[in-house]
Specification:
2 strands; extended; mainly alpha; single chain; 157 residues
């Protein structure tokens, strides 16, 4: 999978060599990825494939731990724990059904698509493209096609 990913990067760079300045390495896992041109010179970026979220979560946990050890934090935690006994409200899903995709990955796909196509690509376009690419294909269509091909091989029309 990684080899296919790097092959795709190389093929994009062959067609659009000006995007080499947008290619950077993750400071954690060292994988190459495209970034927005305004971040091209930065060397402290995490990749959108998990390192960025892991680093953000780690720092958030550290900040939370430090805060909840203070006097104000202990009071706040006491209030939060007390409010848990109240009835919960249903969480509403995204009305367009876009909640099935990871938001960070979709944003990265949007940035890369904008860079490759040389135009602004809206998030709605990216979601539509992903839904079209990832929709489930009918299984019996392929079987019928195979059956038809075998049938005509024996008795050509």
């Amino acid at each position: 999978m990684v080899a296919k990913y790097y092959w795709t990067i190389r093929s994009i760079l062959k067609k659009k060599p000006h995007l080499i300045k947008c290619l950077t390495r993750c400071r954690h896992c060292q994988i190459l990825f495209f970034t927005h041109p305004r971040n091209a010179s930065r060397s402290d970026l995490g990749c959108p494939f998990g390192c960025r979220q892991t680093h953000r979560r780690k720092n958030s946990n550290q900040r939370s731990t430090e805060y909840y050890r203070t006097k104000e934090g202990k009071e706040k935690k006491k209030q939060l724990n007390a409010s848990r006994s109240s009835p919960k409200q249903d969480a509403s899903c995204d009305e367009k059904g876009n909640d099935q995709f990871d938001k960070e990955t979709v944003r990265h796909i949007q940035v890369v698509t904008c860079l490759v196509e040389g135009r602004f690509v809206a998030l709605a376009e990216v979601y539509a493209m992903l839904k079209k690419m990832l929709r489930q294909h009918s299984i019996d269509y392929a079987q019928k096609l195979l059956y038809a091909a075998i049938k005509y091989r024996k008795n050509p029309p």
